[in-house]
Design a protein that fits this description.
The structure holds 2 protein chains of 2 kinds. By secondary structure, chain A is mainly β. Chain A is 0% helix and 58% strand. Chain A has no helices and 11 strands. Chain A is globular. Chain B is mainly beta. In chain B, the strands form 2 sheets. In chain B, strands 2, 4, 5, 6, 9, 10 and 11 form a 7-stranded mixed sheet that branches. A 4-stranded antiparallel sheet of chain B has the order 1-3-8-7, with no helix packed on it. Chain B contains no helices and 11 strands. The chains are: A mainly beta, B mainly beta. At the A-B interface, strand 5, strand 9 and strand 10 of A face strand 5 and strand 10 of B.
Chain lengths: 113, 115
Amino acid sequence: RKEVEQDPGPFNVPEGATVAFNCTYSNSASQSFFWYRQDCRKEPKLLMSVYSSGNEDGRFTAQLNRASQYISLLIRDSKLSDSATYLCVVNVPSGGATNKLIFGTGTLLAVQP
Amino acid sequence: DGGITQSPKYLFRKEGQNVTLSCEQNLNHDAMYWYRQDPGQGLRLIYYSQIVNDFQKGDIAEGYSVSREKKESFPLTVTSAQKNPTAFYLCASSVRQGALYYGYTFGSGTRLTVV
């Protein structure tokens, strides 16, 4: 089983739609979680951090379910500019006093006019 | 403005050559990282460094080398031993608080192609 798994998509949705992505992780000791957005041929940029059960930022809501080991990202009222790849990222212990980030392969979202 | 600068943006390497990718940050971040991204795959960690003059191998370190002589700089050398170096290389940095890392910030990347 991969450490972080995402549905690669693509998710093709019309403008104004609500879309949700799920991500599962295998390491139950994982401590923090993030959603990054990556535009084509660009670097990833932090979209949201998820440290407890979840959080909300405008049209974006992230939720964490530790019991089932999954994180979700909900985008409401989709805009054309939301089209991108969304990376699920998990902070896992890596031995000693260090942690490391594990990246999912990303979910591609295409918002259609 | 604080940030991470990677150079060059595009790099072409001939077979058997070593090339060095530059990464500089002025965020005063403790930790720095190098990742490789291939189509259809997640970012894979090559090397990371938590303090000056110290670094550790990531998941795919073979064929790569790094140095961390200054807090601001973490160059990556792709050696001729790396058999498939064509990829998008991303440098990142973060603040360290205990075992956790915050404020992960990426540079704009270097696209390396073997010709």
